[in-house]
Design brief:
- The protein has 198 residues and is an alpha/beta fold.
- It has a single domain (4-196), classed as Rossmann fold (3-Layer(aba) Sandwich), CATH 3.40.50.360.
- The chain has six helices and six strands; from the N terminus they run βαβααββαβαβα.
- Strands 1, 2, 3, 4, 5 and 6 form a six-stranded mixed sheet that branches.
- α1 packs across α6 (176-196).
- The longest helix is centred in the C-terminal third of the chain and has 21 residues, at 176-196.
- The model has no long low-confidence stretch (mean pLDDT 93).
């Protein structure tokens, strides 16, 4: 398979639990012959969307904010066949850095009439994984699923919702069910990539 998968890790921590779940998913994809890459947003500067509509005025061109790390990440998102994003849950919501990337990535594709606009992510495969100490994963998961849906992704399921239960560094490795869910999700991503690449 000549497909490419990109994972975005929204955790601000080094060696984060979120990254552990993403790496479990990417390992499965790699075993299926998918080229994989993980980008950690930790340490990167990501400005939030300014709602300036410059991307719309330039025919759906990418975001005009140029003084941060968004552009190379966005270009890799465009070239990937599959996108998996992982976020720690803060106050039952997605981490702001990851959300800023996603909002700015999706907004240009909505330029013009929403039904005729170019959709750069249409029919790509992907989905989210959210991680929390105790609760709140489903709220953040729903937030991310709405983004994947409106951008035209094909989102596969798993054996459970793709959420992790972890707090301290290393907890993810103890969350057997969470890892198994990430693995099953990745198996379905690989299956879909095989179907859509032929």
């Amino acid at each position: 398979m000549s497909a490419r998968a990109l994972a975005l890790c929204g955790s601000p921590r080094a060696g984060s639990n979120t990254q552990t779940y993403l790496e479990a998913a990417l390992q499965v994809l790699g075993e299926h012959g998918v080229e994989t890459e993980l980008i950690a947003l930790r340490g990167k500067t990501i400005h939030s969307c300014k709602a300036c509509y410059a991307c719309w005025r330039h025919g759906g061109d990418i975001c005009q904010i140029a003084d941060d790390d968004f552009r190379p990440i966005f270009e890799k998102m465009l070239s990937a066949d599959a996108l998996i994003v992982g976020s720690p849950v803060h106050y039952s919501a997605v981490h702001p850095d990851l959300w800023s990337v996603l909002v700015r990535a999706g907004f240009p594709g909505m330029a013009g009439h929403p039904h005729s606009a170019p959709r750069p992510f249409a029919r790509k495969v992907g989905g989210p994984i959210t991680v929390a100490r105790r609760a709140g994963q489903n709220f953040a998961l729903a937030q991310l699923l709405l983004w994947f849906n409106i951008n035209g992704f094909i989102v596969p399921g798993s054996i459970y919702w793709p959420v992790g239960v972890a707090r301290s560094v290393g907890d993810a490795a103890k969350d057997t069910e969470g890892i198994e869910t990430a693995v099953a999700f990745a198996e379905n991503v690989a299956w879909l990539l095989e179907k859509t690449q032929t």
